[in-house]
Amino acid sequence: QLQLVESGGGLVQPGGSLRLSCAASGFTLDYYAIGWFRQAPGKEREGVSCISSNGGSTNYADSVKGRFTISRDNAKKTIYLQMNSLKPEDTAIYYCAAALKCSGYVARAIHWGQGTQVTVSS
Fold first, then answer.
1. What letter would DSSP give residue 87?
2. pLDDT digits (tens, 9 = 90+) for 35-44
3. How far is CA 113 from CA 43, 47, 63, in A?
4. Which of 54, 35, 41 is nearest to 102 (CA)?
5. Phi and psi at residue 53, in whole multiples of 5°?
6. How far is the C-alpha of 122 from the C-alpha of 120, rounded, in Å?
7. Parallel, antiparallel, or unpaired for β 116-120 and 10-12?
8. Residue of 84, 122, 116 lying closest to 10 (CA atoms)
9. Average pLDDT over residues 82-98
10. Close Cβ partners of 83 (under 8 Å, ≥ 6 residues apart)
């Protein structure tokens, strides 16, 4: 059974860092692009970043460019989102999703994780 499980969320002060992980199981991760999305309270879910199946291509939303880094370790079946210089407006539930391809920084998602909460507040 295909499964994506996010972890690493939590409460952090503005300017701090978090690293989110997305653990994949039940499918061959190597074949899939992976995207990170987020949904803030009262807002629509938005794409944050996307990485190609072999990790050779990464893209970011303008709002996180230069602060977030997406990476993957296909041997460990895990995708990461390193988030630095966090701002209160980064507060959201963060989701990873498997996709057949990235469309820029947005994954054409076909399978979703359950999400992990990130709260940036002093």
1. -
2. 999 999 999 9
3. 19, 14, 22
4. 35
5. -60, -35
6. 7
7. parallel
8. 116
9. 98
10. 17, 18, 19, 20, 64, 67, 68, 90, 118
Predicted local distance difference test score (pLDDT) of residue 1: 83
Strand partners, 102: 107
Distance CA 104, CA 117 (A): 24
Q: Per the structure block, which two tokens stand in for 49?
A: 């970043």
What pLDDT digit, counting tens, does each position of 39-86 carry?
999 999 999 999 999 999 999 999 999 999 999 999 999 999 999 999
**Terminal alpha carbon distance of the chain:** 40
Residue 91 is encoded by which pair of tokens?
Answer: 């507060």
